[in-house]
């Protein structure tokens, strides 16, 4: 990996969690998307998107609410893909490597949430002086410069130095260790699904989890047709339960 | 709430306010005021339209709007629209106490954050991601592109519609929506659809198989292919996912669960129980 590519990885990380624009949190932050962009930087978009998508399964229903950030999926996605492409890793191994990275990355988020309070007091002073046209500086300019520094530097360094060690590191790993990595990669998506289930596995909807599973196992349908079926089933279900309520 | 004749703001002003809200709400996200400063940012270009010659009143509005605020950006954007409408009516001489605006904002942000996070991050994103990841792993980057475009366009569209709804209809309509049956129906349908997709996702993307073989003098019995696969393929991943869900229900943190998964993989991999 060249230093330019490493810096670009750092910039992707900044846009993924810097919240400028805000929708970056819903789009570029997801490993599927930032993995794809990292893949473009490293000259292999398809591998980037596929490895990123696999890593993303772990973070499916991860919720950032009330200023919390349970895992830094952007850093996991970008570095996981960068290491997968430079070190020739398969998706499961990259996933197993990226999960601890995602835990480490949350430091950046909490650092920001804490230090950004300083800029609010600058805005308070602007209001006191009736300089309302300057509020954007306190709300966007200063905190975003700060965010750029604390995101681009660590991610660039990790991508650059990590990539040069990764192939040697993987060579050291023999049969059993590699098997363990693959098992981790296979099991970890259960966490992403489990977290999502916390919000939707409720009451009468429960049975549909089993239905979806059985349908997928025996029909071999992909998620897109299954999603369409699921949407239709949901409409029918709501209509039927509505009719019952009316007739009662 | 906003009377057609009694307006200080043009459509362009509203569009600009909306764009500031949807684009910069978390540029300076912090523990002290959360998104409060961003609300002040939204009001900054409007304030001279509200009070042309009364600097003290301008300052009063800005001080009120920079207070603590936190909500789901897209679902809560109706609160910003509503707050703008209320400040506009107040500036036009309406008898609206400042504390009233603050208390309405604060009382709405909790419920809308709860509903918004559940629907958006708990249902919409997981379903859309599941489908797009599946498309991508089929060997095309289209999945990643479709997801990014759909979620960005969806976020801006929902947020804009909601912002204008709040501006036009006011706080009572928002309360009404929160309490009426429509929301419950949407939630129920989302749960059904989400459960179905998650079931399919388990079958496709969680993998767990045992390597246990029972060898006798005459034959080998492979527990995975000759027992579990004939019982029901993917039964182990399904059971394991329910186990993780159960742990989460028991309030085991996701960090600990990651540790447990790694531990299971090491023990299982070394002993050959898992393959």
Describe this protein's structure.
The complex is a heterodimer of chains A (248) and B (275). Chain A is mostly helical. Chain A has 2 domains: 3-200, no CATH class; 202-248. Chain A is 77% helix and 0% strand. Chain A is flat, with a radius of gyration of 22 Å. Chain B has 275 residues and is mostly helical. Chain B has 2 domains: 11-190, no CATH class; 208-271, no CATH class. Helices cover 71% and strands 2% of the residues of chain B. Chain B contains 11 helices and 2 strands; from the N terminus they run H-H-H-H-H-H-H-H-E-E-H-H-H. Chain B has helices at residues 11-23, 36-43, 47-50, 55-65, 77-91, 98-137, 142-179, 181-205, 223-231, 235-249, 254-271, and strands at 213-215, 220-222. In chain B, a hairpin with a 4-residue loop joins strand 1 and strand 2 (220-222). Chains A and B meet through helix 2, helix 3, helix 5, helix 6 and helix 7 of A and helix 2, helix 4, helix 6, helix 7 and helix 8 of B. Chain B: The chain crosses the membrane at residues 119-138, 144-165, 227-248, 255-274.
Per-chain topology:
The complex is a heterodimer of chains A (248) and B (275).
Chain A lengths: L2 H15 L13 H11 L3 H12 L16 H15 L3 H25 L1 H12 L6 H38 L2 H13 L1 H12 L6 H13 L3 H25 L1
Helix pairs in contact in A: 1-2, 1-4, 1-7, 2-3, 2-4, 3-4, 3-5, 4-5, 4-7, 5-8, 6-7
Chain B lengths: L10 H13 L12 H8 L3 H4 L4 H11 L11 H15 L6 H40 L4 H38 L1 H25 L7 E3 L4 E3 H9 L3 H15 L4 H18 L4
Helix pairs in contact in B: 1-2, 1-7, 2-4, 5-6, 5-7, 6-7, 6-8
Question: Count the helices of chain A. How many?
Answer: 11
Question: What is the helical fraction of chain A, as a range of percent?
Answer: over 70%
Can you tell me the overall shape of chain B? Answer: elongated
Please identify the structural class of chain B as seen in this structure: mainly alpha
Query: Taking all residues together, what is the mean pLDDT of chain A?
Result: 92
Gap between N and C termini of chain B: 64 Å
Low-confidence stretches of chain B: none
In total, the number of domains of chain A comes to 2
């Amino acid at each position: 990996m060249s230093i330019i590519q490493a810096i670009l990885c750092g910039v992707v990380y900044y846009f993924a969690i810097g919240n400028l624009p805000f929708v970056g949190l819903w789009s570029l932050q997801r490993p599927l998307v930032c993995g794809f962009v990292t893949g473009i930087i490293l000259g292999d978009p398809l591998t980037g998107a596929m490895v990123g998508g696999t890593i993303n399964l772990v973070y499916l229903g991860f919720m950032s609410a009330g200023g919390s950030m349970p895992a830094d999926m952007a850093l996991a996605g970008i570095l996981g893909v960068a290491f997968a492409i430079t070190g020739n890793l398969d998706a499961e191994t990259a996933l197993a490597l990226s999960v601890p990275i995602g835990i480490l990355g949350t430091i950046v988020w909490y650092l920001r949430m804490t230090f950004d309070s300083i800029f609010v007091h600058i805005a308070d002073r602007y209001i006191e002086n009736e300089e309302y046209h300057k509020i954007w500086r306190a709300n966007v300019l200063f905190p975003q410069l700060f965010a750029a520094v604390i995101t681009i530097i660590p991610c660039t360094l990790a991508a650059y130095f990590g990539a040069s060690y990764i192939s040697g590191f993987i060579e050291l790993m023999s049969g059993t260790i590699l098997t363990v990595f693959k098992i981790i990669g296979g099991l970890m998506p259960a966490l992403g699904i489990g977290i999502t289930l916390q919000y939707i596995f409720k009451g009468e909807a429960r049975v549909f989890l089993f239905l979806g599973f059985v349908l997928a196992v025996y029909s071999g349908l992909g998620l897109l047709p299954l999603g369409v079926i699921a949407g239709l089933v949901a409409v029918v279900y709501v209509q039927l339960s509505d009719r019952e309520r009316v007739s009662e | 709430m906003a009377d057609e004749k009694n307006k200080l703001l043009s459509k362009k002003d509203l569009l600009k306010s909306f764009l500031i809200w949807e684009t910069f709400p978390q540029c300076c996200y912090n523990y002290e005021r959360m998104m409060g400063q961003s609300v002040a940012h939204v009001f900054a270009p409007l304030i001279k339209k509200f009070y042309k010659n009364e600097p003290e009143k301008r300052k009063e509005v800005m001080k009120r709007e920079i207070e603590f605020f936190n909500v789901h950006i897209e679902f809560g954007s109706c609160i910003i629209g509503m707050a703008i409408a209320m400040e506009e009516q107040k500036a036009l001489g309406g008898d609206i106490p400042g504390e009233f605006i603050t208390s309405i904002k604060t009382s709405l942000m909790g419920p809308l954050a709860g509903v918004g996070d559940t629907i958006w991050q708990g249902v919409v994103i997981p379903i859309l991601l599941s489908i797009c990841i599946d498309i991508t792993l089929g060997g095309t980057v289209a999945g990643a592109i479709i997801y990014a475009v759909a979620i960005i366009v969806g976020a801006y569209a929902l947020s804009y519609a909601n912002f204008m709804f709040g501006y036009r209809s006011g706080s009572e309509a928002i309360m009404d929506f929160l309490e009426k049956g429509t929301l419950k129906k949407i939630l129920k349908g989302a749960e059904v659809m989400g459960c179905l997709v998650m079931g399919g996702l388990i079958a496709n993307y969680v993998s767990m198989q045992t390597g246990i073989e029972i060898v006798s003098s005459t034959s080998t019995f492979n527990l995975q292919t000759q027992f579990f696969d004939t019982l029901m393929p993917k039964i182990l991943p399904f059971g394991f996912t329910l186990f993780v869900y159960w742990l989460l229900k028991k309030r085991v943190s996701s960090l600990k669960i990651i540790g447990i998964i790694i531990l299971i993989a090491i023990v299982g991999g070394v002993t050959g129980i898992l393959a």
